[in-house]
Structure formats: C-alpha cells, structure tokens
C-alpha cells in the first residue's frame, strides 16, 4: 500500500521521536489497535456516551479509518503522530536496515494536531492538541514532552501561536496535562466541528496563546458561530 507520507520525517526530543501515523505501516496500525482497544481508552470514550465497541479494532479497520486523512497530514501536518522512545544507541544505527529499525521501535502513544477536522462544517480556526498514551507509560512526562515538541513544530513551521485543547469535562488527567502545558481553562462550551455529524459537542475547552480579551467565538469556539457557553 503506497503512502504519501515521508517515512523519514520525525520530530525529536531528548527522549522521544514523533512520526507521522502511517496507515501503510503495519507496526503503526498494530500499535494503534493496542491503544484503542485498551481498557483505559475505552473508559475515556464512554465518558462521552460512546458505547463500548462490540468488536476490537483490527489493523484493517484502523487502516481504513486513516487512509482518507493521509493526504491532509502530508500536506498540512494536521493529524496524528505516533510516539516512540529514542534508542540508547541512537546515532550508531546508520548501518541497520530501515525495516529492522522499525521493528525495534518502542511505541508509547500518539499525539495529534487537528485543524479544520471536518472541512464541510464550521470548525475552530486554531489547531487543537490531543494525546493518548498506553497506561504503562503514564507518569513519566512523555505526554508533556511530546505535546511541547508538536506545538513548537507547528509554531516554527506553520506560524501557529494559538492552540486549543478539548476534552471531556470529567477527564481530570487530560485537564491536568493541559494545565502543565500552560493552557488556560476556558470552561465547558458547546463546540462545533469536533464531531463529524454536525452537532456541537459539550466539552471542556483550554487555550494557549489566545490574547486577553479575545472572544472564543472569534476563533470558532463556543459563543458565536459555534454555539453558546453553557457553564463556567
């Protein structure tokens, strides 16, 4: 299966590397299934009223769900990035075949940056940051490190200075991470453009880099074209 994604592109931090989540890469799809089928991920989804899946996510279904988004990820950077731990021998592996390097990667989760998620719908006009880790990698600072790197990449290469974060109002752990990243709590709003059926999702909204006094409605979030503020 050919891919328009550059398999050599990656964003590096002291401990991590971020790669395009590539539907043509079996290792990526296998890990995505592991994450999506984990009890922790299913529990977070159920907070939003999403019923538990009748069947586990498979590599084939994971691949099918991502193929249509590949071109957008390649052209704009908007999409998901899989996170791997840097090898202690990084820098001494030039002789190793790429296939062998791929097999040896230890994946810990993924981060995402979404902008105009659904182009046919009113959407937030600033990118929103997302993150998912396997539970065994919690508490090590990996999510913070990966999120900071992705925001820095978007600031330096795309010129973005404002970012949003959306999560379920009861997802305390995600909100703690947004706070550590320097985001501001903007309350719970009805926001359009984050689910594909055209409805507004009631979510906790966090922002970073949004100037004091700027209405979120000007950014397509909450009050204004998006929907009303429902609670503080």
UniProtKB/TrEMBL annotation:
<dbReference type="Pfam" id="PF13302">
    <property type="entry name" value="Acetyltransf_3"/>
</dbReference>
<feature type="domain" description="N-acetyltransferase">
    <location>
        <begin position="95"/>
        <end position="184"/>
    </location>
</feature>
<protein>
    <recommendedName>
        <fullName>N-acetyltransferase domain-containing protein</fullName>
    </recommendedName>
</protein>
<dbReference type="InterPro" id="IPR016181">
    <property type="entry name" value="Acyl_CoA_acyltransferase"/>
</dbReference>
<dbReference type="GO" id="GO:0016747">
    <property type="term" value="F:acyltransferase activity, transferring groups other than amino-acyl groups"/>
</dbReference>
<dbReference type="InterPro" id="IPR000182">
    <property type="entry name" value="GNAT_dom"/>
</dbReference>
<dbReference type="InterPro" id="IPR051531">
    <property type="entry name" value="N-acetyltransferase"/>
</dbReference>
